[in-house]
From TrEMBL:
Domain Glutamine amidotransferase, residue spans: 93-189
Pfam families with a match to the protein in the record: GATase
Superkingdom, natural source: Eukaryota
Pathway(s) served: Secondary metabolite biosynthesis
InterPro entries: ChyE-like (IPR044992), Class_I_gatase-like (IPR029062), GATASE (IPR017926)
UniProt organism field: Escallonia rubra
UniProt protein name: Glutamine amidotransferase domain-containing protein
Family: Belongs to the peptidase C26 family.
Length: 230
C-alpha cells in the first residue's frame, strides 16, 4: 500500500551485513537510509544477494532504487547477479531512477583503491535530475573508496561526470534516471576502518595498502552532506 504523496524507495542489497555494521548500525539498510534518505519517505529492503527481489508488478510503486556495492564481481554468473542485471535493464526501460553501476567492468589495472579519494567533477556535464537538489555542484568531492574492480567502459549513452587520479570513471549518468558511483558515499570512517581490519585478517590486502588508507582517512573528512540532497 502506498500513501498518497509519500516517496517510496527500494534498497537492493548486494552484500551481507558485517558483524560490525549489524552491531553498530543495525545493518547496511540503516547506513544507506541515513546517507540518502529524507523525511516523508518509505524505504524497503530486498536482499538480492540472497535471491530476494521485488516482484515485477511491484516495480511501478517505487520512485527510485539504490543498488549497494558488493564483494562479488559485477561480471559474475551467479544466478542472483544475472537476475539483478535483468532487473536493472527493466528499470532502465521503465525510466525508473536507479543509483547503481554498470558498463564493462573488470579488475582495476592499478590494483586496490581503499581510503579517501578526491574525485574531480567534469566541467559542463549535461544536466541530470539526480543532481537537481544541489544549488551548485562542487568541482571535487572526497569520497570513501574500497574496490579492486573498475568500470572499463561506460554503458551506451552514458556520460562520465567524475574521475580521479586512480580511476577514470568515478561517476557516470545515463539521461535523467541512472547515476553510477564507483565509491561509497554511504560509508563512514569507522565502517571503512573495520573493513580494512577484515581485509587484513583475510590476507586480501597488504599491510602497506591498509596503512596508506588509514592515513588518508586521518587527513580529511568525506563529503556527505551533498548526497542528502540527491
Amino acid at each position: 500500500m502506498r500513501i498518497e504523496g509519500e516517496k517510496r524507495y527500494a534498497l537492493l542489497l548486494a552484500a551481507r551485513d558485517s558483524d560490525y555494521v549489524k552491531k553498530v548500525y543495525g545493518g547496511y539498510f540503516n547506513v544507506f537510509v541515513a546517507a540518502f534518505g529524507g523525511g516523508g519517505e518509505r524505504w524497503d529492503l530486498f536482499r538480492v544477494v540472497d535471491g530476494e527481489f521485488p516482484s515485477m508488478n511491484e516495480l511501478h510503486n517505487y520512485d527510485g532504487f539504490v543498488v549497494s556495492g558488493s564483494p562479488y564481481d559485477a561480471y559474475g554468473d551467479d544466478s542472483w547477479i544475472l537476475e539483478l542485471c535483468f532487473l536493472l535493464q527493466t528499470l532502465d526501460a521503465m525510466q525508473k531512477k536507479v543509483l547503481a553501476f554498470g558498463g564493462k567492468v573488470g579488475k582495476a589495472y592499478s590494483g586496490w583503491d581503499i581510503g579517501l579519494r578526491k574525485v574531480k567533477i567534469v566541467k559542463d556535464f549535461s544536466s541530470c535530475s539526480f543532481l537537481d537538489g544541489l544549488d551548485e555542484f562542487p568541482p571535487a568531492l572526497s569520497i570513501i573508496e574500497c574496490h579492486q574492480d573498475e568500470v572499463w567502459e561506460v554503458p551506451a549513452g552514458a556520460e562520465v561526470i567524475a574521475f580521479s587520479d586512480k580511476t577514470g570513471v568515478e561517476m557516470f549518468a545515463i539521461g535523467d534516471n541512472i547515476l553510477g558511483i564507483q565509491g561509497h558515499p554511504e560509508y563512514t570512517k569507522d565502517i571503512l576502518n573495520n573493513l580494512i581490519d577484515r581485509l587484513l585478517t583475510n590476507d586480501a590486502i597488504e599491510k602497506g595498502i591498509a596503512e596508506d588508507a588509514r592515513l588518508k582517512l586521518q587527513a580529511a573528512e568525506p563529503d556527505r552532506k551533498c548526497w542528502e540532497r540527491i
